[in-house]
Amino acid sequence: xxxxxxxxxxxxxGEETSRGSTExxxxxxxxxxxxxxxxxxxxxLTVHGPATSATLARAxxxxxxxxxxxxxxxxxxxxxxxxxxxxxxxxxxxxxxxxAVPGDRRFPPRSRQSAEMRLVMxxxxxxxxxxxxxxxxxxxxxxxxxxxxxxxxxEVGEADPWVDAFPYSRGSIQLTLPELRAxxxxxxxxxxxxxxxxxxxxxxxxxxxxRFLAFPAPDAAPDTEPENRPAPHDxxxxxxx
Length: 241
What we know:
By secondary structure, the protein is mainly alpha-helical. 37% of the residues lie in helices and 8% in strands. It contains six helices and seven strands, in the order E-H-H-E-H-H-E-E-E-H-E-E-H. A hairpin with a 5-residue loop joins strand 6 (148-150) and strand 7 (156-158). Helix 1 (27-34) runs parallel beside helix 5.
């Protein structure tokens, strides 16, 4: 199945699909992407915007030599690119600023992945899911620490309205495999409806992280010891031992 737009950096620029997405099918590229430090750096660039190698080093507890090397590798595969120094950064330094390249990136379906590619994909997904969960838990902690205010009517409310920014849905539906693919494409289309250039982003908007996860329910495990199975001596035609 595909990944959500902007979830993973761009590779193989000539592999555009009919829907404008890009399939990440090169094993060397996937290995480069699965490197844990690069995953953390890409997440930081996605959440916080452009940064320098020194900024990333301080934020992630790395040294600038390591972040510079990983940025060059990410840029080599088209995952990140250099940008002009942001106006908000101020100053006139000569640092190199980097941003994550957005796009609709997809992985080959598991049926078309080699055994080695499956291992790489499992590692990549493991790090990505863990990083998302860590960020989610961080935001929950911040929300709990938000100060509360008391209005003139004595009502206590939240000082920050973003404390309510945790929509959540969990459910199940009966689908065929083609229907599941169509469902996913509709989800991607919905995300793209809300994507817009930085210049068109209204005041008060924040980066909101999303993750789509769908999978078939596992088959029921074989019942080797049914609760109502008769004991050997109770079975028809058997004798007590």
